[in-house]
Write a structure and sequence with these properties.
With 283 residues, the protein is α/β, with parallel strands linked by helices. Helices cover 26% and strands 27% of the residues.
C-alpha cells in the first residue's frame, strides 16, 4: 500500500438549487485535482441546503437519478480520483429522505454509501430550532471503506458528538475518519475544532471533515472551517468561513505511530455502571 496521498476538502455554501450546487462542487473538485489531490471530500448536504421542506422534497431525486451523484461519478472518472460526497439529500423509494454519503472510485463506481445515524433535533439558546427527523430517516449501520492507502470510516455532522461510533469504526480497521458537516455557526464556534481533534486523538486516526460555510440562501448560517487533523491531534489544514479548497498530505504511517504511543484501542475493557451503596441505579 502507498504510504502517502493528498486529501482535499471542498468547502461549499450550498443553496436551494441542486444544479447550481453541482456546478460549484464540480468546479472545486477539479481545482483540488489540479492541485494534486487523490481523494476529495465535499460537505454534508452538498446538493441542497434548504429549510423549506416542501421545496426541498420537490428538488430531490432517487439515488439512481440524482444529478449531483452522476456528475461526481463522471468527474471521478475524468480526474482519476476518489470522491467522497460528504452527503446528499436522497429520496428513498418509500418517499422518505436519506442524508447519505457516497464514496466513488476513479472508475466512477460507488464503493460504499452511509446514511447519517444521529439526527439533529435540538432547540438552541439563540432561538434556532432543528428537527431533522421530520424530514430524514436515520441510518443503522456504521461503514468502513477500503481505499488504496487506508481504511476510511464514514459519519456525518451530528454523528461527531457520539464518540462510541468513531471508536467502533477504528476498531473495525479505519485509520481515517470523517464527519462532513453543515454545522451552525453558534455550535461550530463553540465545539467544531475541539470535537474533530478529540475524535482523532482518542482513536489515533486522521480526521477529515468538509463543511458548509457562510450565509446561505435559505437564511441559515454555517460555521465553515473544513479541517484535516492528524492522529496526534495536530491540525494539518483548516479553512476559513468562505467557499474554497484545502489540502493536506496524509502519511498513513502516523496512524501506527500514534496508536503505538497511546494504545487505547488495545486497552478497551468491558465494565458495568452501578449506583453507590444505598442508592438505586436509574435507567
Amino acid at each position: 500500500m502507498t504510504a502517502k496521498f493528498t486529501a482535499a476538502c471542498v468547502q461549499m455554501r450550498s443553496g436551494t438549487s441542486p444544479a447550481k450546487n453541482t456546478d460549484d462542487a464540480v468546479t472545486m473538485i477539479r481545482e483540488a485535482a489540479s492541485r494534486g489531490a487523490h481523494f476529495v471530500q465535499t460537505p454534508e448536504m452538498s446538493n441542497a441546503v434548504n429549510r423549506d421542506r416542501d421545496t426541498l422534497m420537490a428538488s430531490l431525486s432517487l439515488e439512481e437519478k440524482d444529478p449531483m451523484l452522476a456528475a461526481f461519478r463522471a468527474v471521478a472518472r475524468e480526474k482519476k480520483i476518489f470522491i467522497h460526497a460528504g452527503s446528499l439529500a436522497i429520496m428513498r423509494p418509500d418517499g422518505k429522505v436519506a442524508n447519505r454519503a457516497f464514496v466513488i472510485d476513479p472508475t466512477g463506481e460507488v464503493l460504499a454509501s452511509y446514511d447519517k445515524i444521529h439526527l439533529f433535533d435540538v432547540d438552541l439558546p439563540n432561538g434556532e430550532s432543528w428537527r431533522e427527523s421530520r424530514t430524514y430517516t436515520g441510518g443503522c449501520d456504521g461503514v468502513v471503506v477500503d481505499l488504496p492507502w487506508i481504511k476510511l470510516g464514514l459519519s456525518i455532522c451530528y454523528d461527531v458528538r457520539f464518540p462510541y461510533l468513531y471508536r467502533a469504526l477504528a476498531e473495525a480497521g479505519a485509520g481515517m475518519l470523517s464527519a462532513p458537516a453543515c454545522f451552525t455557526r453558534q455550535t461550530g464556534e463553540a465545539h467544531w475544532v475541539v470535537l474533530q481533534r478529540a475524535r482523532a486523538i482518542e482513536t489515533g486516526s486522521f480526521m477529515i471533515s468538509s463543511a458548509q460555510a457562510g450565509q446561505h440562501e435559505d437564511g441559515r448560517e454555517t460555521f465553515g472551517h473544513s479541517i484535516i487533523v492528524d492522529p496526534w491531534g495536530r491540525v494539518l489544514a483548516e479553512a476559513d468561513d468562505k467557499p474554497g479548497v484545502i489540502l493536506a498530505e496524509i502519511d498513513t504511517a502516523l496512524v501506527a505511530d500514534a496508536r503505538g504511543r497511546i494504545p487505547t484501542l488495545q486497552h478497551t475493557r468491558d465494565f458495568t455502571v452501578r449506583a453507590p451503596k444505598g442508592q438505586r441505579a436509574t435507567a
